[in-house]
Amino acid sequence: MNLDELRNKIDGIDSEMCRLFAERMQVVTDIARYKKENKMVVYHPSRARTVLHNISKQLGSEFEGYGRSLYHTIFDLSESYQTRVLSEDAQFFKQIKEITSKPPMPFPKRASVACAGCEGAFAHLAAERIFDLPEMMFVSNFHSVFRAIDGGLCEYGVLPIENSLAGSVNAIYDLLAEHNVSIVRSIRLKVDHSLLTHPGVKLEDIREIYSHQQAISQCSEFLSTLKDVRVIAVENTAEAARMVAMSGDKTKASLSSRLCAELYQLQVLKNAVQNRDNNYTRFICIAKQPQIYCGANRTSIMMVLPHRPGSLFRILSRFNATGVNLVKLESRLIPEREFEYRFYFDIEASVYSSEFQSLMCELNTSGEQFKYFGTYAEII
Question: Which pTM value belongs to this model?
Fold first, then answer.
């Protein structure tokens, strides 16, 4: 038998497999409706074990492992489809439908905005790019930004969540899990850290450098070249510049933005001292209530999954099955549970597509905990 004949034979087998798969999924639909009527759960591990045992016996030792892998995928697809059918009347599905039924609004130009630090902070610069005329409220730390939103002191808050050199800002992920807020926009801001000193100071005069821990990490190569210099972490890069200016001590310096040099009458002794020139920080804009604005195409969610083998794989397989693009996956330890994690997902898809809405409702019922942070546009 030649290659063309063998390929034709494969095509015939594939056609039969497609027919049988469609027939199987139809039966899965009937099972889902039965479970819905009788208030039964979708996942049934003992039934899955029985099927896998039968498959192993039928395939024999040569193909047993491959067959089990194939049927694990089929189980995941079946569970995903059943969940979709069962979730049509779920509260979260109705919530998504309600949000997406409203036409998207233009993003506001003016608003009261909270950010950590003081004037000149990078979050301040991000806020001025997100809003045309922000009314700024500066607070001491990230937690205070969330409290300002929770308490209605400000309409929006702007916070750093990820840096291209130093990675994720873990504290923000933990605070998102603790507070009921929504992400309504994000922005990528190019970040240049400058070494700021009092006028007339030389590099060899410096004995202490202040900055935020993320900025210190981003400038580690430059800092390693300095001798007999203490590096001290503070709450914010702009606060570091203000501390140096108010101290009057010419042995102190900060790693801050160039804007801080103008604001606090400091000199830029060295510009752009970060490890790489392509240093970007991604900031999120949070609000009390979810709202979809024009151009929204990115969604953030959080899940706590059952602590058993394959839990994360089953979730990832649903992205593959629906064709929805997963652009970021972040994990954070749950403090009160040993070696168990929260997972944060960033998804790129139209919130109005049926695939997206179905996926959200499937994920909503697939873990121990699910949290929808919002759908928003990202400014680049």
Answer: 0.78
